[in-house]
Amino acid sequence: MRFIRIVWAIVVKDVAAEFHTREMISAMLVFSVLALLIFSFALDLRGAVAQAAAPGVLWATVAFAGTLGLSRSLTREQQTGCIDGLLLAPVDRSAIFLGKALGNLAFMAVVEAVLLPLSSALFDVPLLRPGVLLVTALGTVGYAAVGTLLATIAVNTRAREVMLPILLLPLAIPSLIAAVQATGGLVEGGTLAEVGGWMRLLVVYDLVIVAVSVLTFGYLVEE
Amino acid sequence: MIQVHDLTKSFGPHMALAGVDLSVETGEFVALVGPNGAGKTTLLRILATLIRPTSGSVRIAGLDPVKEGEGVRRRIGFLSHRTLLYEDLTAEQNLWFYAKMYDLADSSARVADLLERVGLTSRRHDLVGTFSRGMQQRLAVARAVLHRAQLLLLDEPYTGLDPLATQALTNLLTELAEEGCTILLTTHDLNRDLKVGRRVVVLARGRVVHDVPRAEVDLAAFPEQYMQLVR
Q1: Between chains, do A5 and B84 touch, taking CB under 8 Å as contact?
Q2: What is the ipTM of this complex?
Q3: CATH topology for B2-84+143-230?
Q4: For testing the chain B interface, which of A22, A24, A80 should be mutated: the one with the most B CBs within 10 Å?
Q5: Between A and B, how many CB-CB pairs are < 8 A?
Q6: Does A112 touch chain B (CB under 8 A)?
Q7: Diameter over CA atoms, chain A
Q8: Cross-chain residue pair B100–A6, CB shorter than 8 Å
Q9: Over the stretch B62-92, which tens digit does the pLDDT of each residue have?
Q10: How many domains does chain A have?
């Protein structure tokens, strides 16, 4: 019970800090909307082409916007030494990881809540379906988990801004491919059973990444 | 309270601590002085469970920081020139957050009491990012002692403070020492910080090279003696 209280306290703290500045969420939202508009006008996505390209455009935008947020989230902890404040607390360090990861997940979810209807409208594809929402949730969980872990590493390096995408994108490829394929299948009218293989890949990826992250976070944050 | 024996810490080929022996009794106020690179911060970070030693033994209140980290962290408060405060949260939100991390039963009363004590009650709803350096450091002291730490580890806490803020911090630390809190403070400012401790330990080249009660230190002659010790 105490473990859950600690995780929740970290999530609430991140949301409260973001509420005061709105730096991270506004950067993520502006980037996402601009990226979608650029894709929309540059590729002239309509009809069948839009159906084929929209899932890729959507997930590329989610991935890059997520990277922006993940980087900012951990930089905030590093700037005034707050990561030490967290590590000095008498708590299991996996609780710190889960708190940070859930906070990042919440911010990505807010961005997706804007991106999905906007993409639906721009590309005229049915993205606001329960199946697509499930795929989005599964894809985001894995991305937020692996991103939080790697942002923790990247934030301690000199080239922190460029290091995170270099580390994150290769490791997120399995999840991103599965998410794009599953979203594409569902947009084309497929059922969850028909994209079951990609869904299983997303679930396995999430489980493995969350487990590895929880187990390794404590070692990563020690000097 | 602190027992350190033959403690070493290496960062690659560089040996930051080369066999430190140090014992601090409960209630003592120790000033740990030494030049830049002497190993002061490394020693404090090991005591605070933030880094692992390479070899040697460390006990804090009888607990091993490596194996019993949570127990040690419950007993210590850590303060450095970095405040460990969230600039995007208010003073009250910062203390509330840390109160939750330490699972305090009396969070409301404790937070209100500490804000009063560090003179920030009227600014409790303001973002920490809008505070002066001195105000931030006073709030950082409140954060460090929030969970009624038995041992305070202070890593150059006066860095960047003006004379007024320095005096306010000294008064706070003196009060805490009088209440029985054990304090280990690192510094390289001989003129100011030697006056606050009751025992002076000099660390140089990763080793303790001098350890005397403050009363036996001749403040006028000490700078020259110190230069010879750390050379």
Answers
A1: no
A2: 0.85
A3: Rossmann fold (3.40.50)
A4: A80
A5: 78
A6: no
A7: 56
A8: yes
A9: 899 888 888 999 999 998 878 899 999 999 9
A10: 1
